[in-house]
Amino acid sequence: MRKENFCTGWTVRPLQEKQATPVRLPHDAMIHEMRQQQNPSGAGGGYFPGGVYVYEKRFFAPPQAGAEAWVLEIEGAMRDAEVRLNDTLLAENHSGYRDFFVPLESALRLGEENCLQITVRNDQQPNSRWYSGTGLYRPVWMHTGRQTHIPPQGLRIDTPQVEQAVSAIRLQVQIRHQSGQDETLTMQVMIQDRQGQTVYKSHCPVTLFAGEDADVTRRIYLRDAALWSPEDPQLYTCHVALLRGDELVDSTQSTFGIRQLQLDPLHGLRLNGKPLLLRGGCVHHDNGILGAATFADAEWRRVALCKEAGFNALRMAHHPMSKAMLDACDALGMLVWEETFDTWLHSKTVHDDSTRFEAQWEQDLQAMVAKDYNHPSVAFYCIGNEIEELARPEGAHISRRLVNTLRKLDDTRYITNAINGQQSVVGANGLAMLKEMGVITKEHIKALTGSEEADDMQIAQAFMAHLASGNVNDMMTALSGELGRVIEHPSVGEKLEEIMSHLDLCGYNYMMRRYAMDLAQYPDRVIAGAETNPPRIDQLWAQVKALPGCIGDFTWSAWDYIGEAGVGITNYEGKKQFHADWPVYLAYCGDFDLIGTRRPLSYLRQIVFGLRKQPYLSTEDPCRFGAPAVCTPWAVPETVESWTWPGWEGESIRVQVYADGEEAALMLNGREIGRAPVGAAARYTAEFITSYEPGELTVVAYAQGKETGRMTLRTATEVHALAVQVSCTALDADGQRLCFVALAAVDKQGEVYTASNAQVEICLEDGLELIGFGSADPYSTEPMDAAVHRLFRGRGLAALRGTQPGQWKCTLQMAGEYAPVTITLDVV
């Protein structure tokens, strides 16, 4: 079928308003709403209100032969969508992350203008544990074809045999034949490599009977094929055409990769016969300053930066990945852990999908597999994340149904589940287990409740009251340090045994203490750290390397995201809490911050992986020196890649070093401040205390007495200018291409002045549109659709798109006596 971008010419309005605003898709309505502390989404949803929006588009349907089939594709509508054409309700969809298709023929008026209206309801809050976005936040497409056509997603490709000399490729082609006549067509298959060279071509007859669809399966062979891998992501394009003599009836195409996956407890994961450890990161679906709007350029940017930082696998949490990100993972070489559900029957938020699970789980699986099937990057299907009922009979029953259905839909990928034993087992039996293991003693009980004889209900209520208070006393601090031991309790393994037995790969969320014991007890089990704490990457990775049955680690998280506010924020006011107080709206726990700047733990990870030889240097804000840093398990005391702390000359400052080797020496303006051991024995970390003195701070790493690398931080003097870096200079008038504009306040030498939070204003000519502007500041209350925003630690990011052809200027002005910066973009 002919595929047309259907993202322009729309309007949007809140349901209760009559005035509509022109808009181009993808569009996230929620990011334009006002964040307020009282909004019901709370810290989990970034304090956005949610709402109901009506999207409308008018289009002319020509009365031409050859367009008898009309199918609308909506890649993602958050959350409850109703699709009407000319006031006729054609479809409803209640899964915000599902790609769905709507045939339009029954209500379409050929030769006339048609009115397409999509109402999207996302006013029931909270319905997610993260920022969801609202509206038609992914692209929309129109597919048109003849009575005989290959429907969207009608071509499936897999590679059942992969060998150096010859590889087998299996094509499954679905043909829809709505004609009242029998006929025989010719199906032509052509395969091209990445350079566009034809490497295979053949044809065969296909007989179609009147009004009867056909599924055609062909097994073809490609000699000396280039294999797909993260190191060398070779892709091919398969073209399938249906011919009636020399007349083209219909055609379709899809990229694919030739690769072979193997999984077992002795060799772990092998790709094309070679062992592969997963250097993974978890990501949420929002694109920071764009909200949930899914633009291909934004998805490719995230994948590319993660790849450069050392990741070779991404886990999309906790729902299926966008098509654009899958394309990026295919092309750039990133394996994908694809996920489905965050809840089954037991809810986590008031309005989540648990009430709909039974009605829609099978459709969700079908949609995910149809979307993913041809993507070589997709290696794992995950059937859930931290599902609460896993240790109960109903959990085992649901797990079996999901696994069996997935295997029927696609037997080429491995099935996993992201399992949290603390939540599924300890949550239901926690107090008894804590007392049995001596983690909670009579002294603890008396301190909590005032009586050694308090019952479990009284203990639980007192425990939760202490946690809710946010105050950390000595007893609670000591107790929390012991809680990790509970995961070692034998009943955790016993109660999860049935669930684990359904899976090809067992995903362990925060269960590092069980890796070795479970692999010893269950010799057929293969595991991976599906979600882990970033500060423990050295300990986690040591286990991955030591245990053949443990194939990798997925840190939480690879990229900062909106919602779950404050998960990674260091608290200096004595509070210990999962969510930070208003106005924090970001999780702040990514290896990358919200605008794509790498944070210090990212470099520790790269060193631990063995991918970075240079040491890494960062410093703590001297205003925090000596303050008690309280961190969640996702955070470390915060440091910054900076030696610019104006006003703190002569004051004490903490310096953090990450390095491999044997020792690291710290130099300040040519003087050696001290030396400390580094490498695995020191957890690749050294800490120094010195006095802040502007100039150059250098760390030198040594092994066997020889220098192995160094890094220098230089003090930025006063701000001289606003530096601007653009991701591209050419855009399209349809608004699908984006230009990311990275901003930095710099001195005369180009050093970023990290102490700057200067205000920057963006002015655009008519042919450009600002679709996002912001910083990585988790405390910011500035809207991300405004033309004025403050820098955070000297940096900011804007995203532009084109609206009409021409050469157009964007001018950026930083507050103060600084020259404006103008960039020119071509829109075609």
Q: In terms of topology, how is this protein built?
A:
Elements lengths: L1 E4 L4 E5 L6 E3 L28 E10 L7 E6 L5 E6 L2 E6 L6 E4 L8 E10 L18 E6 L2 E2 L5 E7 L4 E12 L5 E10 L5 E11 L5 E10 L12 E9 L2 E10 L4 E4 L3 E4 L2 E2 L2 E6 L12 H13 L4 E4 L6 H10 L2 E5 L17 H16 L5 E8 L7 H17 L4 E6 L1 H16 L5 H8 L6 H14 L4 H9 L7 H6 L1 H5 L3 E5 L5 H7 L5 E6 L4 H10 L3 E6 L44 H9 L7 E4 L32 E7 L4 E6 L2 E7 L7 E7 L4 E8 L2 E9 L6 E6 L3 E2 L7 E8 L12 E6 L3 E7 L13 E3 L4 E8 L3 E9 L6 E7 L1
Parallel strand pairs: 22-23, 22-29, 23-24, 24-25, 25-26, 26-27, 27-28, 28-29, 38-45
Antiparallel strand pairs: 1-10, 2-3, 2-4, 4-9, 5-8, 5-10, 6-7, 6-9, 11-13, 12-13, 13-16, 14-15, 14-17, 17-18, 19-20, 20-21, 30-31, 31-34, 32-33, 32-35, 35-36, 37-39, 39-43, 40-42, 40-44, 41-43, 44-45
Helix pairs in contact: 1-2, 3-4
Would you report the number of β strands? 45
Share of helix among residues? Answer: 10-25%
Main sheet strand line-up: 22-23-24-25-26-27-28-29
Summarize the biggest pleated sheet.
8 strands, parallel, barrel
Poorly predicted runs: 468-480
Describe the fold and architecture.
The chain is of the alpha+beta class and 828 residues long. 17% of the residues lie in helices and 35% in strands. It has an 8-stranded parallel barrel. α4 links the parallel β25 (378-385) and β26 (414-419). The longest helix is centred in the middle third of the chain and has 17 residues, at 393-409. It starts with a strand and ends with a strand.
